[in-house]
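**Protein of interest**
===
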Amino acid sequence: MQVIVTDRAGEIAEYNVAGFSELFSVLSDEMKIDALCGGCCSCATCHIYTDEDDAVKLSDCDENERDVLDGLLHVQSGSRLLCQLASKAEISKLNITIAQAE
């Protein structure tokens, strides 16, 4: 999967990853997403924005993810937690933007 990531400074980077768990690891290392809870859907330090076109390819937010997102200041259309992303169908390309730090 090709992932195009816009960081908080507006810099764009492209990654080729096998899946969402690899993407989570790469962005934690390369883009300095804190991911303090290690993917447990509790800290929101992996808050991202997905493009509207890509959002329909992704699994829906569950209640836990919505509860975490509801507590954030910079939520907008397409807000997701990177640690909770999964796909509904095969995704070859994904665009994400790292959200502002809370």
In short: The two ends are 29 Å apart (CA to CA).
